[in-house]
Each structure stands twice: as structure tokens, then as C-alpha cells.
Specification:
Elements: E1 9-12, E2 15-18, E3 29-31, H1 34-45, E4 50-56, H2 62-73, E5 76-82, H3 102-112, E6 116-118, H4 122-125, H5 144-147, H6 151-166, E7 170-174, H7 178-190, E8 196-200, H8 220-240, H9 247-260, E9 265-273, E10 287-295, E11 298-305
Parallel strand pairs: 3-6, 4-5, 4-7, 5-6, 7-8
Antiparallel strand pairs: 1-2, 9-10, 10-11
Helix pairs in contact: 6-7, 8-9
Bound molecules: adenosine monophosphate.
Residues 56-57, 63-64, 66-67, 173-174, 176-177, 200, 202-203, 210-213 line the site of adenosine monophosphate.
Length: 307
Amino acid sequence: MIAKVRLGTFRCGAYRVTIGDSQPQDRLAVVRTVAGLRKAVASFRAVGRTIGLVPTMGALHEGHVSLVKGALARGDVPATSIFVNPTQFGPNEDFAAYPRDEAGDFAKLEAAGCRIVFAPDKDEMYPVPMLTTVKVTGVTEGLCGPFRPGHFDGVATVVTKLLMMAGPDRAYFGEKDFQQLQVIKTMVRDLAMPVEIVGMPTVREPDGLALSSRNRYLSTAERTAALHLHRQMTAVAGAVRDGRDSCSAATAAAARALLEAGFDKVEYLTVVDAESLRPLERVASPARVIVAARLGRTRLIDNIAVG
Ligand code: AMP
């Protein structure tokens, strides 16, 4: 089962961890170091392959797997990173409790056809105190921005590091985190980073709930209430399509319905321009209904296209 490799290879459970390998592998290679990642990437580049990076925080589900499959569909060798990035969590957020399941993640990645998983520890990602931060303005200022101070600085900085470490041709992100996707696209455009950012559709449960690593925090009653998020976004999208209803009236009604359904707080429920993320009152250009709401200790975010 385990492919023969040249140097510095050892096992982690059922998986092979590669430090100094220079041959492209036909199964998942687990790398823990930046040097190992660069060697694994170079081995595929040497045989003419392109690389598709899929940055994640692990606890993988079908949403993450769809990004790996998106990379495969475009002919890229998928390289997934798994790193729960402390700098994008606020002091009262769930960094310590964030779900971790490395063995399960590796099995899902292998089954999906991923070829490289980069799973560094904190000292590998941040070997010295960081004196540099990548900060995107504008698209970070509304929506989650005020509720999660510093979050997008942490995201932009770690994604920049991952892009510099892996040097992929494309990087794949989910529309599920729509503001994050716009932040990354803006950063790559503004800094002329040599990578194409590919946004992939949100994968949902049959009742509409977007898959999320945090859904496992939901109690049975909260899980039942959670399906109203998609239902209310759909109602808003229908109401405001083609400039029919005012966005503020439609979103106010939907926010009330969420509270009645058992949500504890609606942080925002807004219709925004799909590129600038500025709030709209009437829809005349590509737009998204976008929401963040709390159910018990779980913060859920989601969005859908209008029209
Ligand atoms: P995370 O591990 O939550 O940081 O997510 C890693 C990547 O997976 C991000 O680009 C997310 O937008 C994407 N993602 C998370 N959930 C989904 C989903 N339900 N459908 C599609 N992509 C997703």
C-alpha cells in the first residue's frame, strides 16, 4: 500500500509523511514542513502538472471535498492545506474547541483524489513572531468585519503565506464564505499574485443547510431551527429579484422570522452587491443575500445569489 520513497519518510497512522521525497506520488503524500511541501509540488511540476491549492482548517466534509474535485476537474494536482489558524480567531472565539480529525481528513482526501496534504504545526507556520500583516480594506469593512475584528487580517495573511509556500496555479475557495472569497480575490488582484482564484458553489444538506465544520456543535433542536436560514434567504432573494421589493423590508421580515424560529441573534441579514459587498436597497446588478446568525453557541454564516 505504501509507495517506496527516497528519503525522510515515515508513517503517521496509515499515512506516509514525506520530508525529502522528489518523486511525484500516485497517492496522498502528507507533508508537515514548508520544505516538504515545496519538494512535493516541484515533483509534480517536473512532470508538467499544474497545482490546485485548497486551503482548509480541517474537520473536512463534502464541501471541502468539492473543492478538491474542482481542482481535479480543471486538471490540477490537488494540494490541500489543513491548519487551524490561530490569528483568524478572536479571543472569545472557538479556536481551542475547533473540531480536529486529522486521520479522518487524510482518509477523505485520499478517497477524493488529493495528492498532497500540507498539515503544518503552529511553529512551522509561525516560526518567529510575525511583524507583517496583509490587510485588505473595503470588502472587509462590513458584514463579518465589525463582528470579528482582525479576522480577515488573519485570513489574508495566512492565505498569502500558503500561496507563497505552495506556489499553486489555482487556489480553490468556497462561496459559502462569500466575504472571504471576495477578500482573497481583492488581495490577489491588488498584489498581482500569480494565481487564479476559483470560487466553488456551496454544498448543502438536502434541507438547504450549508455544510460546515461548525454544524457539529448544533443540538437536535438547533439543527431543526438551522434549516430556516436557507429558507429565509430564499424568501428574500425571491422578494427582491429584479428590484421588486425593497431589500431593507425583505431582510427585516426574514430576520424576524429567524428569531421566531429559534435563532438567538441575527448579526446581519443583508442584500449586497456581489463584488463590492456594499448593501443594496434595490437589486439591479449581481447581488447576494448574506447572513450571519447565532443559534446557541454556534455562529452560522451563509449566502445565496439573487436571481
Ligand atoms: P474552512 O475549513 O471552514 O476554513 O473552509 C475551507 C474552505 O472550504 C473555504 O474555502 C470554505 O469556503 C470552503 N467550504 C466550507 N464549507 C463549504 C461548503 N459547504 N461548500 C463549499 N465550500 C465550502
